[in-house]
Amino acid sequence: MRATSWTFGDFIIFLVLTGACIITLAPIVHVFSVSLSGSEAVYHSSLMLYPKEPTLQAFRYIFATPTLIRSFGITVTITVAGTLLNLLFTITAAYALSKKYLPGLKVFMLIVVVIMTFNAGIVPNYLNVKAFGMINSLWAMIIPGMVNAFYLILMRNFFMDLPQEIEESARMDGAGELMVVARVVIPLSLPVIATVGLFYGVGHWNEFFKGVFYITDASKWPLQVLLKTIVFDQNFNDLTSADTTNVNIEPANVQAASIMFATVPIVLVYPFLQKYFVKGIVMGAVKG
Protein backbone atom coordinates (compact mmCIF):
# COMPACT_ATOMS: atom_id res chain seq x y z
CA MET A 1 0.00 0.00 0.00
CA ARG A 2 1.44 3.35 -1.04
CA ALA A 3 1.86 5.89 1.71
CA THR A 4 -0.35 8.96 1.39
CA SER A 5 1.70 12.08 0.66
CA TRP A 6 0.82 15.30 2.40
CA THR A 7 0.42 18.46 0.40
CA PHE A 8 0.85 22.00 1.69
CA GLY A 9 -2.94 22.42 1.61
CA ASP A 10 -3.42 19.30 3.75
CA PHE A 11 -0.93 20.65 6.27
CA ILE A 12 -2.75 23.99 6.49
CA ILE A 13 -6.10 22.24 6.96
CA PHE A 14 -4.58 20.07 9.70
CA LEU A 15 -3.22 23.15 11.50
CA VAL A 16 -6.56 24.97 11.24
CA LEU A 17 -8.53 22.00 12.55
CA THR A 18 -6.04 21.42 15.36
CA GLY A 19 -6.27 25.07 16.37
CA ALA A 20 -10.08 24.93 16.28
CA CYS A 21 -10.06 21.83 18.52
CA ILE A 22 -7.74 23.50 21.02
CA ILE A 23 -9.82 26.68 21.09
CA THR A 24 -12.99 24.63 21.60
CA LEU A 25 -11.68 22.23 24.24
CA ALA A 26 -9.50 24.60 26.30
CA PRO A 27 -12.43 26.42 28.03
CA ILE A 28 -14.16 23.12 28.79
CA VAL A 29 -11.01 21.61 30.27
CA HIS A 30 -10.39 24.79 32.28
CA VAL A 31 -13.90 24.86 33.77
CA PHE A 32 -13.74 21.13 34.57
CA SER A 33 -10.35 21.56 36.27
CA VAL A 34 -11.50 24.57 38.30
CA SER A 35 -14.60 22.71 39.50
CA LEU A 36 -12.41 19.97 41.00
CA SER A 37 -9.54 22.12 42.29
CA GLY A 38 -8.86 23.62 45.68
CA SER A 39 -9.59 27.30 46.29
CA GLU A 40 -5.93 28.23 46.80
CA ALA A 41 -4.92 26.69 43.48
CA VAL A 42 -7.77 28.46 41.70
CA TYR A 43 -6.86 31.79 43.27
CA HIS A 44 -3.26 31.61 42.04
CA SER A 45 -3.98 30.19 38.56
CA SER A 46 -5.41 31.96 35.53
CA LEU A 47 -5.63 28.88 33.30
CA MET A 48 -5.94 25.31 34.54
CA LEU A 49 -5.55 22.31 32.25
CA TYR A 50 -5.85 19.73 35.04
CA PRO A 51 -7.27 19.72 38.60
CA LYS A 52 -4.87 21.00 41.27
CA GLU A 53 -5.38 19.97 44.89
CA PRO A 54 -8.40 17.84 43.79
CA THR A 55 -11.48 18.22 45.94
CA LEU A 56 -15.27 17.95 45.65
CA GLN A 57 -15.81 20.92 47.96
CA ALA A 58 -17.46 23.06 45.27
CA PHE A 59 -19.97 20.34 44.41
CA ARG A 60 -20.78 19.76 48.08
CA TYR A 61 -21.34 23.51 48.38
CA ILE A 62 -23.84 23.78 45.51
CA PHE A 63 -25.72 20.68 46.71
CA ALA A 64 -26.02 22.00 50.27
CA THR A 65 -29.68 22.89 49.62
CA PRO A 66 -32.16 21.63 47.03
CA THR A 67 -32.18 24.92 45.07
CA LEU A 68 -30.02 23.63 42.23
CA ILE A 69 -31.74 20.23 42.26
CA ARG A 70 -35.15 21.94 42.01
CA SER A 71 -34.03 23.97 39.00
CA PHE A 72 -32.55 20.83 37.49
CA GLY A 73 -35.88 19.02 37.89
CA ILE A 74 -37.73 21.95 36.30
CA THR A 75 -35.38 21.93 33.32
CA VAL A 76 -35.69 18.16 32.91
CA THR A 77 -39.49 18.45 33.00
CA ILE A 78 -39.48 21.23 30.41
CA THR A 79 -37.03 19.35 28.20
CA VAL A 80 -38.84 16.01 28.26
CA ALA A 81 -42.40 17.33 28.01
CA GLY A 82 -41.47 20.02 25.50
CA THR A 83 -39.53 17.67 23.24
CA LEU A 84 -42.33 15.09 23.19
CA LEU A 85 -44.92 17.75 22.32
CA ASN A 86 -42.59 19.29 19.73
CA LEU A 87 -42.15 15.93 18.02
CA LEU A 88 -45.87 15.13 18.19
CA PHE A 89 -46.92 18.32 16.42
CA THR A 90 -43.95 18.39 14.05
CA ILE A 91 -44.41 14.79 12.91
CA THR A 92 -48.14 15.13 12.30
CA ALA A 93 -47.77 18.46 10.49
CA ALA A 94 -44.82 17.26 8.41
CA TYR A 95 -46.69 14.09 7.39
CA ALA A 96 -49.69 16.10 6.23
CA LEU A 97 -47.52 18.56 4.30
CA SER A 98 -45.62 15.72 2.64
CA LYS A 99 -48.77 14.69 0.72
CA LYS A 100 -49.12 16.41 -2.63
CA TYR A 101 -52.87 15.85 -2.62
CA LEU A 102 -53.32 17.96 0.54
CA PRO A 103 -55.78 20.81 -0.29
CA GLY A 104 -54.07 24.19 -0.10
CA LEU A 105 -50.59 22.66 0.15
CA LYS A 106 -48.86 25.61 -1.53
CA VAL A 107 -50.59 28.07 0.79
CA PHE A 108 -49.57 26.11 3.86
CA MET A 109 -45.97 25.85 2.67
CA LEU A 110 -45.91 29.59 1.97
CA ILE A 111 -47.08 30.25 5.53
CA VAL A 112 -44.37 27.96 6.90
CA VAL A 113 -41.66 29.70 4.87
CA VAL A 114 -42.88 33.15 5.96
CA ILE A 115 -42.87 32.05 9.60
CA MET A 116 -39.35 30.69 9.19
CA THR A 117 -38.17 33.97 7.67
CA PHE A 118 -39.93 36.53 9.87
CA ASN A 119 -40.43 36.67 13.63
CA ALA A 120 -43.02 38.68 15.56
CA GLY A 121 -40.48 39.89 18.10
CA ILE A 122 -40.08 39.86 21.86
CA VAL A 123 -42.89 42.26 22.82
CA PRO A 124 -45.71 40.60 20.80
CA ASN A 125 -44.62 37.19 22.06
CA TYR A 126 -44.66 38.42 25.65
CA LEU A 127 -48.12 39.94 25.20
CA ASN A 128 -49.41 36.64 23.79
CA VAL A 129 -48.00 34.66 26.70
CA LYS A 130 -49.46 37.15 29.18
CA ALA A 131 -52.88 37.13 27.46
CA PHE A 132 -53.05 33.34 27.81
CA GLY A 133 -52.17 33.55 31.50
CA MET A 134 -48.92 31.62 31.21
CA ILE A 135 -46.65 34.06 33.08
CA ASN A 136 -44.82 32.13 35.84
CA SER A 137 -46.05 28.88 34.31
CA LEU A 138 -43.79 26.18 32.91
CA TRP A 139 -46.07 26.08 29.86
CA ALA A 140 -44.62 29.46 28.90
CA MET A 141 -41.35 27.61 28.31
CA ILE A 142 -43.00 24.93 26.14
CA ILE A 143 -45.98 26.20 24.15
CA PRO A 144 -44.47 29.29 22.44
CA GLY A 145 -42.53 27.99 19.47
CA MET A 146 -44.10 24.54 19.68
CA VAL A 147 -43.15 23.82 16.05
CA ASN A 148 -39.92 25.06 14.50
CA ALA A 149 -40.52 25.84 10.81
CA PHE A 150 -37.05 24.71 9.72
CA TYR A 151 -37.36 21.36 11.52
CA LEU A 152 -40.84 20.99 10.04
CA ILE A 153 -39.50 21.38 6.50
CA LEU A 154 -36.59 19.06 7.25
CA MET A 155 -38.92 16.32 8.47
CA ARG A 156 -41.38 16.91 5.63
CA ASN A 157 -38.63 16.42 3.06
CA PHE A 158 -37.60 13.20 4.78
CA PHE A 159 -41.18 11.90 4.69
CA MET A 160 -41.44 12.75 0.99
CA ASP A 161 -38.40 10.56 0.34
CA LEU A 162 -40.00 7.47 1.91
CA PRO A 163 -41.27 4.76 -0.49
CA GLN A 164 -44.95 5.41 -1.12
CA GLU A 165 -45.52 1.74 -1.93
CA ILE A 166 -45.10 0.81 1.74
CA GLU A 167 -47.82 3.24 2.82
CA GLU A 168 -50.11 2.05 0.04
CA SER A 169 -49.62 -1.56 1.13
CA ALA A 170 -50.55 -0.63 4.69
CA ARG A 171 -53.71 1.11 3.48
CA MET A 172 -54.65 -1.93 1.42
CA ASP A 173 -54.45 -3.94 4.64
CA GLY A 174 -57.00 -1.59 6.20
CA ALA A 175 -54.70 0.80 8.08
CA GLY A 176 -55.89 4.37 8.55
CA GLU A 177 -53.74 7.48 8.44
CA LEU A 178 -52.87 7.38 12.14
CA MET A 179 -51.96 3.70 11.90
CA VAL A 180 -49.79 4.39 8.84
CA VAL A 181 -47.95 7.12 10.73
CA ALA A 182 -47.49 5.04 13.89
CA ARG A 183 -46.63 1.68 12.27
CA VAL A 184 -44.93 2.69 9.03
CA VAL A 185 -43.73 6.29 8.88
CA ILE A 186 -42.27 6.66 12.38
CA PRO A 187 -40.26 3.38 12.37
CA LEU A 188 -38.78 4.30 8.98
CA SER A 189 -38.02 7.86 10.08
CA LEU A 190 -36.06 7.27 13.27
CA PRO A 191 -32.94 9.07 11.97
CA VAL A 192 -34.70 12.37 11.30
CA ILE A 193 -36.92 12.03 14.39
CA ALA A 194 -33.89 11.43 16.62
CA THR A 195 -32.02 14.34 15.03
CA VAL A 196 -34.89 16.81 15.28
CA GLY A 197 -35.74 15.56 18.76
CA LEU A 198 -32.20 16.22 19.91
CA PHE A 199 -32.28 19.72 18.43
CA TYR A 200 -35.54 20.41 20.25
CA GLY A 201 -34.20 18.90 23.47
CA VAL A 202 -30.98 20.89 23.44
CA GLY A 203 -32.99 24.03 22.72
CA HIS A 204 -35.22 23.43 25.76
CA TRP A 205 -32.27 22.53 27.98
CA ASN A 206 -30.34 25.68 27.06
CA GLU A 207 -33.39 27.99 27.01
CA PHE A 208 -32.58 31.16 28.90
CA PHE A 209 -34.51 34.12 27.50
CA LYS A 210 -37.95 32.57 27.99
CA GLY A 211 -37.07 31.90 31.61
CA VAL A 212 -35.99 35.52 32.10
CA PHE A 213 -39.00 37.02 30.30
CA TYR A 214 -41.80 34.73 31.47
CA ILE A 215 -40.67 33.35 34.86
CA THR A 216 -40.41 35.95 37.62
CA ASP A 217 -40.83 33.52 40.53
CA ALA A 218 -37.33 32.42 41.58
CA SER A 219 -38.68 29.07 42.80
CA LYS A 220 -39.66 28.23 39.19
CA TRP A 221 -36.42 29.26 37.54
CA PRO A 222 -35.02 26.75 35.08
CA LEU A 223 -31.40 25.72 35.39
CA GLN A 224 -29.97 28.23 32.93
CA VAL A 225 -31.55 31.23 34.69
CA LEU A 226 -30.24 30.06 38.06
CA LEU A 227 -26.86 29.50 36.44
CA LYS A 228 -26.87 33.11 35.26
CA THR A 229 -27.33 34.39 38.82
CA ILE A 230 -24.44 32.21 39.96
CA VAL A 231 -21.96 32.95 37.18
CA PHE A 232 -22.66 36.59 36.28
CA ASP A 233 -24.37 38.03 39.36
CA GLN A 234 -22.31 35.89 41.78
CA ASN A 235 -25.42 35.61 43.90
CA PHE A 236 -24.93 32.59 46.15
CA ASN A 237 -27.39 33.65 48.86
CA ASP A 238 -30.25 31.51 47.58
CA LEU A 239 -27.99 28.70 46.43
CA THR A 240 -27.15 27.31 49.82
CA SER A 241 -28.48 27.72 53.34
CA ALA A 242 -25.72 25.67 54.91
CA ASP A 243 -23.23 27.18 57.30
CA THR A 244 -20.39 28.15 54.99
CA THR A 245 -18.81 30.87 57.11
CA ASN A 246 -15.80 28.67 57.79
CA VAL A 247 -15.58 27.26 54.29
CA ASN A 248 -12.69 28.60 52.21
CA ILE A 249 -14.02 28.49 48.68
CA GLU A 250 -13.55 30.73 45.68
CA PRO A 251 -16.57 32.00 43.69
CA ALA A 252 -14.87 30.57 40.59
CA ASN A 253 -15.10 27.08 42.13
CA VAL A 254 -18.86 27.42 42.62
CA GLN A 255 -19.36 28.86 39.15
CA ALA A 256 -17.35 26.12 37.47
CA ALA A 257 -19.11 23.35 39.41
CA SER A 258 -22.51 24.82 38.51
CA ILE A 259 -21.55 25.04 34.82
CA MET A 260 -20.39 21.41 34.78
CA PHE A 261 -23.59 20.31 36.52
CA ALA A 262 -25.69 22.08 33.88
CA THR A 263 -23.61 20.91 30.91
CA VAL A 264 -22.77 17.25 31.50
CA PRO A 265 -26.32 15.76 31.39
CA ILE A 266 -27.16 17.06 27.91
CA VAL A 267 -23.67 16.23 26.61
CA LEU A 268 -24.15 12.60 27.65
CA VAL A 269 -27.13 12.33 25.29
CA TYR A 270 -25.09 13.03 22.14
CA PRO A 271 -23.23 9.68 21.87
CA PHE A 272 -26.51 7.76 21.78
CA LEU A 273 -27.98 9.82 18.91
CA GLN A 274 -24.86 10.75 16.97
CA LYS A 275 -25.26 7.89 14.47
CA TYR A 276 -28.57 9.40 13.29
CA PHE A 277 -27.24 12.92 12.62
CA VAL A 278 -25.77 12.66 9.13
CA LYS A 279 -28.47 10.38 7.76
CA GLY A 280 -31.28 12.42 9.27
CA ILE A 281 -30.06 15.80 8.07
CA VAL A 282 -28.77 14.77 4.62
CA MET A 283 -31.86 12.75 3.68
CA GLY A 284 -34.13 15.48 5.01
CA ALA A 285 -32.43 18.09 2.85
CA VAL A 286 -32.71 16.25 -0.48
CA LYS A 287 -36.10 17.51 -1.63
CA GLY A 288 -37.35 21.08 -1.59
From TrEMBL:
SUPFAM superfamilies: MetI-like. It comes from the Bacteria. PROSITE patterns: ABC_TM1, PROKAR_LIPOPROTEIN. One of its GO terms (biological process) is transmembrane transport. Keywords: Cell membrane, Membrane, Transmembrane, Transmembrane helix, Transport. Residues 72-272 form the ABC transmembrane type-1 domain. One of its GO terms (cellular component) is plasma membrane. It is a multi-pass membrane protein. InterPro entries: MetI-like, MetI-like_sf. The chain crosses the membrane at residues 12-32, 72-95, 107-127, 139-159, 180-202, 254-273. It is found in: Cell membrane. Pfam families: BPD_transp_1. The keyword Membrane applies. Its main location: membrane. Belongs to the binding-protein-dependent transport system permease family. PANTHER family: ABC TRANSPORTER PERMEASE PROTEIN MG189-RELATED-RELATED, POLYGALACTURONAN_RHAMNOGALACTURONAN TRANSPORT SYSTEM PERMEASE PROTEIN YTCP. This is Carbohydrate ABC transporter permease. It comes from Paenibacillus thalictri. The lineage of its organism: Bacteria, Bacillati, Bacillota, Bacilli, Bacillales.
